[in-house]
Write a structure and sequence with these properties.
This protein is mostly helical and 405 residues long. The chain contains 18 helices and no strands. The protein has a single domain, classed as Growth Hormone, Chain: A (Up-down Bundle).
């Protein structure tokens, strides 16, 4: 049994969780500005607005394998510092855009920095804590997602309302330049130090061989396939939800961004911690507990989402959307624990990188512009009805993976 985690591991968790909050704040601040960008001198269509997230995700997923390979071979705190600095500067540059092309380029550049962070931080945490604690550790780390996302919605909405949409990018990006310095003080634990035994190839194995091994790993393939469907639904919902509340439910901009942000914070915090705790608790009974918790929670979220998107009654749709978000966030910690646990310790950053590539390629790269295009052709309310089916598909794949593994 691995020894208990020390102060260095706890410090790494605290610092990386804080930075992860700003990661998602910078990522989703643009979602709160959609309606203003449509009415601004940029005059964006819904398809163009949706493509801002797509441009970011394309660069994010294409550069992730590069940083994944570096993360399994180089000093990780330095790579993290570079990543945080790049994405923060790119976020701030979005406020200087004078055309759709300029804004698209700035948002795409955010993906370079976040690729370094997104691939390396989970691997460093996995090497800092023993296997039986990773569900809770990742629950803490990924609890920053709803808080950061909600902060992005709220900050963007408030800054936009008072000072214009450009100010939102400036305020969101500036703190990250200081946070990059915190990464340099982190320790870089040995790969596999917290595992009972070293699995798989030694450090330094060939890049092509590493990816080939991952693609032959059935448990890994199925886990990532379900994650791609989950990301399709969650990415589309996260980007378009403020516009859905404003346009379909008739809320003001401030109410749409702040109320949805409040829902995301509360449900994300509670759901992520509940899912992480449940994954660790049931690990004593089943080695597939992380997949089972994620699968059943996501399947249950599908009917709740359908009710939330269809009902015009606020007393019905608001509780349904709360339930949907709560169940979706319950999967965050367990599914990321499942990914790092089914691969060799020396290939974790590579495994996370490949999963990022796949879940975004088939997930939130196509979903925001597809929903935007369907909205242009019909309505945003109609476009949202595609999401419950994809949510159910994600849960079904994870339950199948648990059974087959």
């Amino acid at each position: 049994m691995a020894e208990r985690s020390g102060a260095g591991a706890r410090a790494a968790l605290a610092v990386l969780t804080l930075i992860n909050l700003f990661n998602y704040l910078d990522r989703y601040v643009v979602a709160s500005l959609v309606e203003s960008l449509k009415k601004s001198e940029l005059s964006l269509s819904d398809t163009q607005a949706g493509s801002l997230m797509t441009g970011f995700v394309i660069i994010y997923m294409l550069t992730s394998p590069v940083f994944g390979t570096l993360g399994d071979r180089q000093v990780r705190p330095r790579l993290l510092a570079v990543g945080v600095g790049i994405w923060s500067l790119a976020t701030a540059l979005g406020g200087l855009a004078r055309s759709f092309a300029g804004l698209f380029a700035a948002r795409a550049a955010v993906g370079i920095g976040e690729a370094a962070y997104g691939t390396i931080a989970p691997a460093l945490l996995a090497d800092s804590f023993p296997r039986e604690r990773r569900g809770r550790v990742f629950a803490i780390f990924f609890a920053a997602i709803p808080i950061g996302s909600a902060a992005g919605y709220a900050l963007g909405g408030l800054m936009d309302q008072r000072y214009g949409w450009r100010s939102a990018f400036f305020v969101a990006g500036a703190p990250g330049l200081l946070l990059a310095l915190l990464c340099l003080g982190l320790k870089d634990p040995p790969r596999g130090a917290r595992d009972e035994e070293e699995q798989g190839p030694p450090r330094g194995a060939g890049v092509r061989a590493s990816y080939a091994r991952l693609l032959r790993n059935r448990a890994y393939r199925l886990t990532v396939a379900g994650y791609a469907a989950y990301t399709f639904a969650l990415g589309g919902l996260a980007f378009w939800a403020p516009a859905f509340f404003e346009r379909i439910r008739g809320m003001s901009k401030a109410d749409a961004t702040i109320q949805f942000g409040a829902i995301v914070v509360v449900t994300g915090f509670l759901g992520t911690f509940a899912g992480g705790w449940a994954g660790d608790f049931f690990l004593k009974r089943s080695k597939q507990s992380y997949l089972l918790v994620s699968g059943w929670a996501t399947v249950a979220a599908a009917p709740a989402a359908l009710i939330g998107f269809l009902s015009p009654d606020r007393a019905v749709y608001m509780p349904a959307i709360v339930a949907t978000e709560l169940l979706l966030f319950a999967s965050t910690g367990p599914i990321n624990s499942a990914i790092v646990n089914v691969v060799a310790p020396t290939e974790r950053a590579t495994a996370v990188a490949l999963s990022i590539l796949m879940i975004h390629l088939f997930g939130d790269v196509p979903s925001p512009p597809l929903i935007g295009a369907l909205s242009d052709a019909t309505s945003l309310g109609t476009a949202f009805l595609t999401l419950p089916a994809v949510i159910a598909l994600a849960g079904a794949i994870w339950l199948y993976a648990a059974r087959r593994s």
